[in-house]
TrEMBL record:
Originating species: Streptomyces griseoaurantiacus M045
All residue ranges annotated as the HTH iclR-type domain in the record: 17-91
GO MF: DNA binding; DNA-binding transcription factor activity
Transcription listed as a keyword: yes
BP GO annotations: negative regulation of DNA-templated transcription
UniProt-listed SMART domains: HTH_ICLR
Coiled-coil stretches: none
Organism phylogeny: Bacteria, Bacillati, Actinomycetota, Actinomycetes, Kitasatosporales
UniProt keywords, alphabetically: DNA-binding, Transcription, Transcription regulation
UniProt key word DNA-binding: yes
IclR-ED domain mapped to chain residues: 80-252
Name of the protein described by the UniProt record: IclR family transcriptional regulator
Taxonomic superkingdom: Bacteria
Pfam family, one: HTH_IclR
Length: 259
């Protein structure tokens, strides 16, 4: 006889941890040989009772982690899981493809270039290609960039979930919030961002798109004497061209600038 796990009284924190653990266990059952699951199969493999599995299936379907297979009692990974998987594959791909573009760009414009990926609450510096210019301006890999950075504003301008972008900018104090949102709208129209900070460091940033939307930004970083702020400068145009080529290779579409 199969022994099933029996739910015991637990604190709210323990219940939360148990729910996350069981959700992960259910998702871990899917593989190329098991693209779909039934309640009976899940019950047997995890040793849970059918009522518990039914409850988890219902909750995971509601949250998009699972979806029902048409005309059957089976379930399969849902849209949320597919989107997450696509996102992670896109991040791996951009990390493999971007270095060649960044090296070529840095050699052309004599400026360091920086690739940033979107983290939990903003851009994170993921790759840096330093230039051979006598004056070296660089950024440390792993740095979390502020929401008012050029790279963050480019992400916020093109994130598919604009409600999330509005929530993030809503956390900024006034008048920074209003100014950031104004700049984001300008970036959405121009397709790029440029900014000179109080230390005289200029950052020109442009988006890279995959099939699912924006997947990264590439920025040129230098002193304002090395790097013009104007978006029609030679350096900015070279950055834009590199990001457009990389976008095409990633299977994305560069948005047309609006007036």
């Amino acid at each position: 006889m199969t022994k099933h796990q029996v739910d015991k009284p637990a604190t709210v924190r323990e219940q939360d941890i148990q729910a996350v653990s069981r959700t992960a266990q259910i998702l871990g059952l899917f593989d190329p040989e098991t693209p779909e699951l039934s309640v009976a199969e899940t019950t047997r493999r995890l040793g849970l009772n059918r009522t518990t599995v039914h409850r988890y299936f219902s909750s995971m379907i509601s949250s998009g982690l699972l979806e029902r297979v048409e005309d059957s009692a089976l379930v399969r990974p849902g849209r949320a899981i597919l989107q997450l998987g696509s996102f992670m594959l896109g991040q791996q791909r951009i990390m493999q493809m971007a270095p060649a573009y960044m090296r070529e760009l840095s050699l052309e414009i004599k400026i360091s270039t920086v690739l940033s990926l979107w983290g939990t609450s903003g851009p994170v510096v993921s790759l840096v290609e330093e230039s051979d210019h006598p004056t070296l301006v660089t950024v440390r890999v792993g740095s979390q960039l502020a929401l008012d950075s050029s790279q963050a504003k480019v992400f916020l301008a093109f994130l598919p979930d604009q409600f999330h972008a509005d929530r993030l900018t809503g956390s900024l104090p006034q008048p920074q919030r209003t100014e950031t949102r104004r700049r984001i709208e300008a970036i959405r129209q121009a397709g790029m961002s440029s900014y000179v900070n109080h230390r005289g460091i200029c950052v020109v940033a442009a988006p890279v798109f995959a099939a699912t939307g924006i997947c990264a930004t590439i920025a040129a970083v230098g002193t304002e004497r090395m790097l013009p702020e104007a978006l029609d400068s030679r350096e900015a145009m070279a950055l834009k061209a590199a990001c457009e080529r990389l976008t095409k290779e990633m299977g994305g579409t560069w948005p047309e600038a609006t007036d």
